[in-house]
Design goal:
This protein has about 550 residues and is α/β, with parallel strands linked by helices. The chain is built from eleven helices and 19 strands. Helix 1 links the parallel strand 1 and strand 2. The two termini are about 45 Å apart. Bound molecules: flavin-adenine dinucleotide and iron/sulfur cluster.
Length: about 550
């Protein structure tokens, strides 16, 4: 007999973790299936050589570029906590106007079927859950919120404070990034986070990053009704004879086949893997893939136009934790060109480069460590559009194939041009090193970190596989709770929206069981067994709920 749970959640990243956390207090039997393992805690977590050069934690295998058949390694991690184990923890709300239609250079970013106001209460809860730092009102485009950020803005180190002053002098409105690290600057002796230089792109050795494992999965596992099964890769979802319900969840666990059943199934494997799983689950009743009568599952893939820009400043930059400052003056327009009618994008600080990373960016540099001492590192994001032909497909052998054509290249170029122009005028002069003013560029197809849009939601089953509750129109007991549901990518980071929406989905599922307000009581029981870092997790959770 297959093992039965009230709710099976597939994937333990931002979305799956939040659903599990929110439903844990309901007492329903919840089984979390995760294809990866717990990431080992070891000194290499913070070793640039191990991360970037030796690729110690890379476990995504390879996918295929549909344009030319080339194989590539996607920026994708399979661990408990998903990609949040490595993320930069910048936790933005989408802007209010992002929920409406927006005209871009290459077309229209479509309107969402819900408004900012619908998601706002869940953003409030998501910021509390992930203990986000920030200062309301600094960002000129900050959407309304119920109250201040749970934690104060993280301070700039001196070189970034200087950069902030220079940008203000240039007429811009830099602001403190909304950041989910468990840093208590007022009480450093109690702070879980030690403000180190190896955060963005690295796992946190001391469990002080607000990632899905630390903030949702481990706390949820303290409830006796929640179980995590690792190395459990879901390979197929099968339906009952009506085709309206998932009746069997087929898992490959270390090469063995396992089967599960559930009243409700929540798919949160990441936008690309979730779409791939539905496509791979085609049967007689769903010949084009599960819930894919519309033909839209896997389509409208968006990745963001993401670029790194490394500026080499004459003034050395000894900053350790650099992700404290953002600039959204170019989000909707170009303040330096009133004739430009389109959005341009967002700018934020990136993790600080060190010798190994600079070695990739500037391979002919003889002394990458010295060059790194002068780097100031930025991350630029421009919205990409949900093209129907940008899509995920699954090969006969189960391999993932991506078809992806970039959009809004003129906006990407303009954002870079504007930032470089500003930096030219604020002491990133060319005379630092001959021919060494800027490095970095746009991410290729492997840059799938911000993937979204592959199973979008909407009221019309002919054009959107998910309904407004993120349940498949064609399958009554299957919900999706990762970034697949996005209708547009916007130009800010996706994860807070994934978490907020996952809590919304959890509320709907709790309602199905006749229960209300899932996750309303966030008090987490004491650990029921040894955990990786009981002291850290307990104190962090205590602070979150206090
Ligand atoms: C280096 C890096 C930096 C980033 N920085 C930021 C940032 O600063 N801010 C931000 O908002 N976002 C950031 N992101 C993106 C962020 O990590 C993702 O938006 C977020 O993790 C997506 O959540 P998810 O739940 O959709 O998917 P994931 O977090 O990817 O979780 C999906 C989970 O499903 C599991 N899974 C996949 N397939 C199966 C299967 N068949 N069966 C069982 N389990 C499966 C995976 O192993 C994984 O654990 C960053 C990402 C990276 C890689
Ligand atoms: S200690 Fe703080 S800065 Fe360092 S990785 Fe952890 S959360 Fe990031």
């Amino acid at each position: 007999m297959p093992e039965h749970a009230d709710v099976v959640v597939i994937g333990s990243g931002a979305g799956g973790g939040a659903v599990t956390w929110a439903l844990a207090p309901t007492g329903k039997k919840i089984l979390l299936l995760e294809r990866g393992d717990r990431l080992p805690r070891e000194v290499q977590n913070w070793d640039p050589q191990a991360l970037w050069a030796d690729k110690r934690y890379s476990n995504s295998g390879q996918w295929t570029d549909g344009a030319d058949g080339r194989r590539f390694t996607p920026k994708q991690h399979y661990y408990v906590g998903g990609n949040t184990k490595f993320y930069g923890a910048i936790l933005y709300r989408f802007r209010e106007r992002d929920f409406g239609a927006v005209q871009h250079v290459d077309g229209v970013s479509p309107a969402w079927p819900i408004s900012y106001a619908d998601l706002a209460p869940y953003y409030d809860r998501a910021e509390q859950l992930y203990q986000v730092h920030g200062k309301r009102g600094e960002d000129p485009d900050d959407p309304p919120a119920a109250g201040p950020y749970p934690w104060p803005a993280i301070s700039d180190e001196p070189r970034i404070a200087q950069l902030r002053a220079d940008l203000i002098g240039a007429g811009l409105h830099p602001f403190s990034l909304p950041n989910g690290i468990l840093l208590d600057e007022a009480n450093p002796h109690l702070s879980a986070c030690i403000r180190c230089a190896t955060c963005d792109g690295y796992p946190c050795l001391v469990n002080a990053k607000a990632d899905a494992q630390v903030m949702t999965v481990e706390p949820a596992l303290r409830y006796p009704n929640v179980t995590l099964r690792t190395r459990a890769r879901v390979v197929r979802l099968e339906t009952d004879p009506s085709g309206r319900n998932v009746s069997r969840i087929v898992v490959d666990r270390d090469g063995d086949r396992e089967e599960y059943t559930a009243d409700v199934v929540v798919l949160a494997a990441g936008a690309i893997n979730s779409a791939a799983l539905l496509l791979a689950s085609a049967d007689d009743r769903h010949p084009a893939g599960l819930g894919n009568g519309s033909g839209h599952v896997g389509r409208h893939l968006m990745l963001h136009n993401n670029s790194g820009l490394v500026a080499f400043s004459k003034t050395p930059n000894p900053t350790r934790f650099q992700k404290t400052l953002g600039v959204n003056d170019f989000y909707w327009s170009d303040p330096f060109d009133p004739d430009w009618e389109y959005p341009v994008g967002s700018i934020q600080m990136n993790g600080k480069s060190e010798a190994v990373l600079i070695g990739f960016d500037v391979p002919d540099e003889r002394d990458p460590a010295e060059l790194a001492r002068h780097s100031i590192d930025f991350w630029l994001t421009t919205e990409d559009l949900p093209l129907t032909e940008n899509r995920v497909t699954v090969d006969r052998d189960g391999g993932i194939r991506l078809f992806y054509r970039r959009t809004n290249a003129a906006e990407v170029a303009r954002l870079r041009m504007r930032l470089q122009g500003l930096l030219d005028s604020i002491r990133c002069e060319q005379d630092v090193y001959p021919n060494r003013q800027y490095a970095g560029g746009q991410l290729g197809i492997g840059g799938v970190a911000h993937q979204n849009g592959t199973i979008r939601f909407g009221p019309d089953p002919a054009t959107a596989p998910l309904d407004l509750d993120c349940r498949l129109h064609e399958v009554d007991n299957l919900y999706v709770a990762d970034s697949s549901f996005f209708v547009s990518s916007t130009a800010v980071n996706p994860t807070l929206t994934i978490i907020a929406n996952a809590m919304r989905v959890a509320d709907t599922i709790a309602g199905r069981f006749g229960l209300s307000a899932a996750g309303a009581d966030p008090a987490v029981p004491a650990p029921r067994r040894a955990e990786p870092a009981p002291g850290t997790v307990a104190s962090v959770s205590g602070r979150a709920t206090g």
